[in-house]
Structures are given as C-alpha cells and as structure tokens.
Amino acid sequence: MPANLTPQYLKAEEEYRRASTPEEELKWLQIMLQEIPKHKGTDKLQAELKRKISEVKKQIQTERSTGRRTRGFRIPRQGAGTVVILGGPNAGKSALLRALTRATPEVAPYPFTTKVPLPGMMPWEDVFVQLIDTPPITADFIDPCMHGLIRSADLALLMVDLGADEGIVQCQEVIDKLNKTKSRLSATSYLDEEDVGLSYTRAFLVPNKIDLEEAPARLELLHELLPLDFPEYVISAEKGIGLEPLREAIYKALDVVRVYAKPPSAKEPDLERPFTFRRGSTVADMAAEIHKDLAKNLKFARVWGSAVHPGTIVKGDYVLQDRDIVELHM
Fold it and tell me: G domain spans which residues (predicted)?
C-alpha cells in the first residue's frame, strides 16, 4: 500500500472489508477517499477508489429499481470477532463447530450435510468468538453467499480432510475456486491496491482427523504437494485433539483487548461482560460504541489498568489496554 496512510484511512479500509451490504461498502469507500493522503504516490489508489464508488452506486441504484438484493444471506456480527470455517465435502467443518461451540449442526459421514451457513459462539475465558460453519466448496460449486462471509470475516479456517486420499485434492480445489473470485485467502488480511474490490482474508490451515491411522502419512503428503504459508493447527474435531491450541490461536489472531465498564455511580465494574475492541482503540472509540451522545459529550475517563495508576484521569485519545476498567464521564 502507498506510504503515509492515516490511521483513519486504515480503520475505514478494515470496515470496508467487513461490509455486508452495498450501502455499507459505499459509506466506507467514501471515507477512504476522504481520508487518503493526496499525493502522487496515491494517485492510482485514488482513481481505483473513485471507480469502485461509481460501481457500488450503480449496484445500489439497480437493486432499488429492481427490488432484488445481490446479497441475500447475512449473519449479524457478534462477539469479539467472526471466524468462517471453510473446506471441501466431509472435511469436518460441522464437527469443529460442534466441538468449539454450543451449536448443534447436523454431523454425518456423507458430504453436503451443511446446506446454509450456521453460526455458533466459541467461549474463550470471559469473551465469545463467532464461528460460522459453511456449505462445502468444490471445483464445480461455491454458494454465492460465501463471498461476503469470507470477505467480512476476521479469520478463515481452511480445513483439510486427512481421513481420505481425496482430502488434499479437495483442499486444492477450494483454494483454486476462491482464487477465481474476489474473496481469497492469505497469511494476512488486506485489500489489493490495484483492485479495491479484491479482498484477502487471513487464514489458518486446519488438517482434521489426525486420530485416524493413515492421517500422519497424508499430512506429510499435504506438506509436500500443497505448501501454504498459513499457520497450521492439526486437530481431530471428533476426538478433541489439538482443539485448545486452536481455540487460543483463534482468539489471539483477532488482536482485540477486553475492557470493563464502570458506571460513575457504581462501586464496582461489570466484570461479567467486557467490551472488546481492536488493539489500538481509544477511550473515544469506547464512548462511540456505547452511545453517540456519550462520544459527543465525553469530557474525560478514569482508568484502572496495567498501564496507569488506579483511577488515572485520561482524555479520549488514551489507548485502551487489555483488562482496563474504564469509567466514562460526560
């Protein structure tokens, strides 16, 4: 990306990746164009943003005139972040969702059990992470709703079936199929500056069914035939092998901090339901999350945490730390 992009631009870019409707896309594209530094090094990106804004405006106009939405399936974001589970038929996506959450998807030894995306909430300490089970991707088919789910996710888990010889081929087919779309997988999440509509979502490789006799040999073959630069977590969803390291890695990949609110009138903070914010977020961001009037009229905050003395008075630009207790004052 061009140098000197502002924090405001990068935040808008992140929100644009998460957008699930054309209206949301348009909002954040316009903010990106507004916030991008205007110099020669960004001329190409500015032009691409203007092109994309025009394209999205036409899409919105077409949808309004025809009454047809191009994105018919939407799952509201919940928890500390959203993780989408991907893979070919029988890779174990539903079994993993069942093992890590309280969701009860149908799990069966035949392919295409999952017909529509199904969310569940994965606990980690005192917060929850949203996991979404998805229909299988094959060389011949990908459900249209998958593009938006992958694009807006904070992380993707690409599962590989180590229980069958065709598991590696199916994993390759998933990657190849996605590479023909504008929602692809990578070691990091970012937008392509040559095409703002082309989005890459950070991914973990999750080889499954390592408990089976021939699985270790298939894992070695996977490394030989399909070398990927994604972090790898080998598991057995059915037997519970490797699930706790994966659970912890999922949460840490979200790179969030937990913040506990303390109303000025309360003696103790609410330690049961922390807010979660992207690392680098501020007290002003917290105020905006709670209520727009609080953000508008925020005077100061008192903070108890590892980076300050107990009850320190701070302004809106104070950067939140994990497990901070914050008391907002209007």
Answer: 82-179
- Contact between 28 and 12 under an 8 Å Cβ cutoff? The reply is yes
For residues 25 and 27, what is the distance between their CA atoms, to the nearest angstrom? 6
Residue 194 to residue 299: CA distance in whole angstroms? 42
Please check whether residue 214 is in contact with residue 186, taking contact to mean a CB–CB distance below 8 angstroms: no
Are residues 288 and 326 in contact, defined by beta-carbon separation less than 8 angstroms?
Answer: no
> Which residues, 6 or more positions from 65, have their beta carbon under 8 angstroms from its beta carbon?
none
- DSSP class of residue 310 equals T
What architecture does CATH give domain 82-254? 3-Layer(aba) Sandwich (3.40)
Instruction: Put residue 270 in one of left, alpha, beta given phi > 0 → left and psi -120 to 50 → alpha.
Output: beta
pLDDT mean by block of 10 residues, the chain; 330 residues: 74 86 89 90 89 91 77 77 95 95 70 75 95 94 88 96 95 96 93 86 98 97 94 97 97 96 88 91 92 88 93 94 94
What does the alpha-carbon distance between residue 219 and residue 211 come to, in Å, rounded to a whole number? 12
User: What number of other Cβ atoms are within 10 A of residue 60's Cβ?
Assistant: 16
**DSSP states along 192-230:** ETTEEEEEEEEEEEEEE-TTSTTHHHHHHHHHHH----S
Handedness of CA 51, 56, 62, 68 (dihedral sign): positive
Structure tokens that stand for 55 in this block: 């394209």
pTM over 0.85: yes
Pairing of strands 183-186, 195-208: parallel
CA angle, 195 then 200 then 201, to 5°: 155
Domain limits of the chain? 7-66, 82-254, 256-329
